[in-house]
Amino acid sequence: MDSINELSATESLSRRDREKRTREMDILKAARELFVSKGFRETTLEEIAHHAEFGKGTLYNYFASKEELFFGIIEQVIEETLAIARESVAAPGSAREKLLLYAREMIRYVKDNGELLHVLYHELHRSNAPENVSKLREIIGRANGAWEVLAGPLKKGIQESALRDLDPLQMIILFDGMLRGYCFHQFVIQGKPADDDYSSAAEIITSVFFDGIAERNDKG
Q1: How confident is the model at residue 176 (pLDDT cuts 50, 70, 90)?
Q2: Is residue 4 over pLDDT 70?
Q3: What's the pTM value of the predicted model, to 2 decimals?
Q4: Going by fewer Cβ within 10 Å, which terminus of the chain is more open, N or C?
Q5: Are residues 150 and 120 in the same domain?
């Protein structure tokens, strides 16, 4: 009987956790939409609660302030980009193919979320409160965990003598730097996706990283 009760309690707790997570995601989704349409400073907690179809009291059960919600969105964005890194590395293929997939998916993600990232970027630069700076450093540290994930295929390529014996972590920082720089300039600074065709950008970045840009002379 005790085992049955313990199982029932576990299932009940799991269900409550799922419901809690669903509410939290609904609140974050509402905040993301309103921050894009109205701006961070112009959006109120009351509006977010109404948009998520919750009472303000319910919202306070999950986020104590608008700033906490703001950083919750940043953490959510980081988790989404980490997921892209993990899924790209888990895909079949060589290191080059995995990083090409990662580049494609990241460009698509930043393009689809460019307006939100624009709001987050500009608001971060408007606020220099010590507690915010500390929180941001913590979040960035977690975001850089993607480099460890992405370095995996390069390590394997080095072990198989398919790539030069260089520090894989330093190499992936360079690769991701090119990719982030491109995405940042095209989508975040501008605040919205441009109309140009960026379908070849991932291929160009991957080619430059793996092949370089110098003309090769094979005439002996």
Answers
A1: very high
A2: no
A3: 0.83
A4: C
A5: yes
Number of domains making up the chain: 2
Question: Look-up: residue for tokens 């799991």?
Answer: 14
Q: Residue 46: which pLDDT band, with cuts at 50, 70 and 90?
A: very high
CA-CA distance, 204 to 211, in Å (whole number)? 10
Longest dimension (CA), the chain: 82
Residue 35 and residue 136 in one domain: no
Q: What is each CA distance from 55 to 51, 64, 65, 66, in whole angstroms? A: 10, 14, 14, 15
Structure tokens at 16: 């409550």
Dihedral class, residue 194 (left if φ above 0, else alpha if ψ from -120 to 50, else beta): beta
Contact by Cβ (8 Å): 8, 21: no
How far is the C-alpha of 143 from the C-alpha of 156, rounded, in Å?
22
Range of the domain at 58: 1-64
Q: Domain for residue 153, yes or no?
A: yes
Measure the CA–CA gap between 10 and 127, rounded to whole angstroms. Answer: 42
Residue 49 near residue 58 (C-beta atoms within 8 A): yes
**DSSP labels for 169-199?**
HHHHHHHHHHHHHHHIIIIITTSS--SS--T
Residue 212 structure tokens = 């370089």
